[in-house]
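User: Before I run my own analysis I want an independent prediction to cross-check against. Here's the chain; please return only the structure tokens and, at the end, one sentence I can use as a sanity check.
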Amino acid sequence: MHVDIQNLCIAFPGATGISHAVRNVSLSIGNEKLGIVGESGSGKSLTARSILRLLPRSARLSADRLAFDGIDVLKASESAMRGIRGKRAGLILQDPKYSLNPVMTAGAQIAEAWRMHRKGGAREARDGAMDLLDQVRINDPARVFAAYPHELSGGMGQRVMIAMMLAPDPELLIADEPTSALDATVQAEILRLLDDLVSRRGMALILISHDLPLVSHFCDRVAVMYAGRIVEQLGAGELARARHPYTTGLLECLPALSHPRPRLAVMKRDPEWLK
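Assistant: Structure tokens:
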């Protein structure tokens, strides 16, 4: 699996003119764990969603090249895109309580995803869903299978979302702030689970996050975005040697128990970064 993005631009028309949300982004993604970091509104989610062509109708999308494993996403039919979305590339969203169907049980939703992409009968889909719940380390799969989303905790709901995305056995998993709605201990559990599943299944991963230390420990490579552009790309282990002032500014804003400071640094932005 290989994703090739060259000169990607995403814009939105508005009352005061065109707003350029993503500007001239180029990325090449192979069988690796790529972290995309930056502030809210920097274009991280839009960049990742463009791979699946899951953008608002008002979005104006253009690129010199936007390809998923050789398939031209810009020109692909909806039928071809359905062969990518879910089946070959899964998307885990931020908050399961807004992503899961409130009137279907967790098990029914996983089984539906399983049957949609793997076919088979109801019994096979149920067995497949139960196996996926076990893979995401749910202690009582039968209880969770029969539960509705409102009966699940945030961490449990996120595990159900991960199980749904794994049902078609995708080649690429896009995790868009998968732990932002969870407390710190559950965040660590979900990330360890994702790491284990990605490694065991040999999938590629795009992890979208605000958390630089998390990404540096979890990913192979990091792309830093600011105002719709990628300002720096480097190996996850090389973040301490980042050169762009925006990346170093983000790192300096972080509190550290090992180096306590009376006041945290404040980001100083340069208009040149927007050019």
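Sanity check: Residues 88 and 170 are 4 Å apart (CA to CA).
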